[in-house]
Every structure is written in C-alpha cells, then in structure tokens.
Amino acid sequence: MISVANPNIEDIPQISKEMKLIERELMRAIEESEEPVRGILKDFFAGGKRLRPKLVLLTGLCFSPVNMEMIYSAVAAELIHTASLIHDDVIDRSDYRRNRPTINYIYGNHTAVIAGDFVFAKAFELLCRYNLNRCMGHLIDAIQEMCHGEIMQAVENTNKKVDEDYYFKIIEKKTASLISACCKAGAECGKAKEEDIKKIGLYGLYLGYVFQIVDDLLDVIGDATEIGKPIGQDIEEGKITLPYIYFLQDSTFGAKYRKVLANKSLIAAVKSELLRDIKKSDAISKTYAKAEEFAKKAREILKEFPDSIYRNILVELSFKVLKRKR
Amino acid sequence: MISVANPNIEDIPQISKEMKLIERELMRAIEESEEPVRGILKDFFAGGKRLRPKLVLLTGLCFSPVNMEMIYSAVAAELIHTASLIHDDVIDRSDYRRNRPTINYIYGNHTAVIAGDFVFAKAFELLCRYNLNRCMGHLIDAIQEMCHGEIMQAVENTNKKVDEDYYFKIIEKKTASLISACCKAGAECGKAKEEDIKKIGLYGLYLGYVFQIVDDLLDVIGDATEIGKPIGQDIEEGKITLPYIYFLQDSTFGAKYRKVLANKSLIAAVKSELLRDIKKSDAISKTYAKAEEFAKKAREILKEFPDSIYRNILVELSFKVLKRKR
User: Fold this and answer.
1) C-alpha–C-alpha distance, residues A8 and A50, integer Å
2) Predicted TM-score (pTM) above 0.80
C-alpha cells in the first residue's frame, strides 16, 4: 500500500482560499432562499467533503488562473450532488447521513422530494445566470446518467444480474459520471482544449470508480461514527457491491452465501455473521486492489498534462480518495 | 356565464401545424432516452392538454413569426410541467392521472422520483443546447416558486391557516408561476420588449389563477372519467381549496362542517355527504365567479397589445380555461 501523508480529502491547504469562496457562495445560494426552504436545507449542507467542487476548481486551475466561472460551477456541482443525495435518501429510506438525520427522516418524503428539486433548480439558476452553458451541458449529461443508473437498478432489481461488469456499469452511471463531469466542467472554465477536456474527464471517471469502490468497502469495514451512517446498509438493502461479488467467488465462503445473497429477504437474519465472514475472506483485499488499480489509471492520465502544483494535488487526491476513512 | 364555441383547450386549429412540431420534438426528447427510462416515460406524456407549450407558442407569436426557440422552449415547458406532475403524484400518493395509472403506482416511488429528475434534466438539456438562457431563467424561477409552494403546504400543514389570501398565495406559487413563466418565455423567444414580457407574464399569472380555481372546482363538481381521476381527492387529502373556503362561509352549512374540515382524520367519514352539501351551497357559484373575475383581468391586459390572431386566441383561451371540463 502506498502511504499518503494526509488522507483527509477535506484538507487541501493550497486551495483553501478558493474553497472558502466556494463555501461562501454555496451558503449564499441556500440563504437567499425563502423560509421554510432555507431552514430545511441549511443543516444538510454541513459536513460534506466537497470533493466535487474541489475537482471543478483543481481541474480548472490546471489550465488557467482562478476565475469566477470555476467558483460558480463548483458551487453548482455541489448543489447537484446534494440534490441527488436528498433524493437518494428518500429512495433508500435512509435515516442518517453525515451523522445527522436526513431530510426525509425529519420532514417526511414529501418535503424531501421537493427540497431535492429545489436544490437542483438552484444549481441551474447559477449556471444559467452566469451563462455557464458548456459546464451545464456536462453536468446535465451526468444527471441523466445518474438517473439511468438508479432506474436500471430499480427496475432490474434482481441480484441474479450482479457481476463485476454490471457493477461497474452501475457505479459509472451513479457516481463516476458526475465526478467526471466536474473535471470536464472545471477544464471548460479553464478554457482547456477539447482534447484535454476529454482526457481530464477520463481522470474523473477513474477517480469516480475509486471513490465508489472505497465507499462500498467502507460500508463493510468502515467505522460507523466516522462515515456518519450504520455499517452494512448496502447488503441490508440487497445491494451486491464489489466486496460481495468477490466474497461470492471466495473458495471458503462463496458457496455458503450464494443462496442467501440472491434473496433479499434472507439477508437481514445473517447480516452480522456475513459481515464477520467477509472480513475473513480475500474479498476486502481484492476490492482494495481494484480501487488501487483505478487510482493508478487516473494518475497515468495526469502524466499527459504539464507539471503544476494543481496537477500534483490531483495526483495526491487519487491517494486520498483511495485511503479515506469517511 | 359567457358562452364559448369550443371549450376544448386541446383544439386550437390556427396553431395545429406548430403544435404538431412541438409534439414531435417532445416525443423525440423522450425517445432519445435509453431504456428502461424511455418505456417508463412514454405513456405518461400521452393525453395532456399541452396548455403550457400552447402558451409559450401563442405569446411568442404575438411578437414575432414562429422560430425554433419558441418550439424548444415550449417542449421544455411541457417537460418541466410533466416532471412536476410525476413528483406530485409521489407526494400525493396518487394512483391515477389522465385516466392512467401513475408512474409511482406502476413502478413505485423510487422510480418515480428519479423519472421526475430525469425529465427535469431533459428540459434543461434542451434549453442549454439551444442557449435559451433567458427562457431558462423564467422557468427556473417558476420551479423554485413551485417548490416553495409545495414545501409551505407540507411544513405548515394545518388547515387553521387556510383562508382566501393563503389559498391565492399557494396557487400562485404552485400553478400560476409556471403558467406565467411560459408566457414570459414565449415573449422572450418573440424578442418582445422587457415591458411587454412583464405584462404578458401578468396575463399568465391571472390565467394560472383561473386554471387552478377551475381545477379545484372540477375536483368537486367534475366528471371523474373526463378529468381522469376520482372526484373529491383534494378534500380527502385535507386540502382546503377555494370551494371549501367559501363553503365554510356559507350561512346554512358553514357551522356544520367547520370542525370536520379542521381535522383531516374526520373528513373521510363524511366525504359523500360533504360533496352533496357543497353543491347545495353557494360555494360553487362564488368560486366560479372568482375564476371569471381573473379571466376578465387576464383579458384586460391583452387589450394593451396590438390586435392579432394570436392575441385573439389568448383571449379565447381565457374562456376555454374557465369553461373546461377536464
């Protein structure tokens, strides 16, 4: 395992000035809303890692000095991400996120559906107001991909289909597409060439894979307090993520759990045993190795860009995303 | 009551060519989506009155010959309206709309929330692709108003507050704001002057009031087959609309129902008696008179624009919206 001095995505001192500006504009976007919407949303924005705005900013800075297009696109990216989380929590009936009760838990599904719509609209308001149409295009593509991923999972809700290929298809749509779009949007704001925008988008795509694989890993081996929600939620909801796909291939445990994992209603009863056994199997190290492989791929792409402090932070970020604890 | 030759909003022969084009582009927007999204959405778009695209088109034509900006803005307006209906059906737990089962009824809330998000994104994709930023601005404002209206109703979900002022505040946000935005968007596409855009927006606002008042009236006295959903849904959900506000002021029935309507859980038991009594009261005629008053106000504004066949259709539309049966 590669060592990284500071695995906190939160902490990137080289861009702290710009991130403060982004944070201020993000809060302004929420605070300019009328009550009761403002009160409902304000808490929900606290405590995020702000990975997506950081990517917009850093990819932009690889191509140009900072400009307000980067700031507003970064804010819009975080708004879109947050809107999708609000709707995800409704869909997954989640009670907790970032160590806080979710909007659906406090106010009900009704309010959460609309609050998500409102936050999406806020993002487009910013992108529209500052004529950031090229960024908007990338972000809209990503939203559509995210929706496709969600609906595929819902409609084809059968665990029979879940293999590595299907898993990567889904995480590309549900997570990596937005992370990739953030990188493309940043590069657009930096007036990068078409070719470079595509390349940096691919960096984002691989980084997105790493992010989601680690997310799925943390749901198995993470610390509930640190990640802000209970462990084992995925499998409880019948989501067969990469660690479980590898677990089913394990020679010691695979056969034992094949039937259980194919039937959602059987899972709850064996959850704690399952979580213990998966840690004894090779599934965890195989999953981690896969994430590592994509982090390396992401870094390979960055080699094609000129050396700069911001490129180096993007390199470092691939390690941070891999080694994160929350 | 004013008589109108043809009360069908559907039937406006003077713009049938343009409406066919809008319909084709609307279907294209859905059909270019991947499965399973396409299949889920296709049916849901059938059978709408297309009031909002008609308004974009007609207000545009008041200021300029037809152009593709009008067509795409009209399509985007219908997409936004449809997305909001999909989410409304989730929120209201509605099983039927336009004589068909809703998306949440067939596929569940999960899929319906995401399908709505997808349709919103489709609208923005069109507006973004054709750089219709001024139209987008009006439509985004309307979406935010709609969300505010929904959340106000949800959070302040107490019937104590419901009086005429509150009712109009809510229907302005929930219905009239989008209808008004459609008129402003159309005028933008027609390159109208700022002043005229504001005026036509006011026409839309009043027309929106008429539309919603009549909607609320049809929920009391309409024909279930014609409107495509059961009668009395509003009151069953505890929504005190204008007919009920006037009913409570009625000298014969008001006192009898005051306590019942203040308590949602008491309503279901007396629903059929309530629907019979409200028809005997003066609530229906008072509500209709109110709608008539706003239809007249809408027409007053149109007098400030030069005579044209399209202005005259907008005049006629104020009667059609008032006298519609579905």
Assistant:
1) 11
2) yes
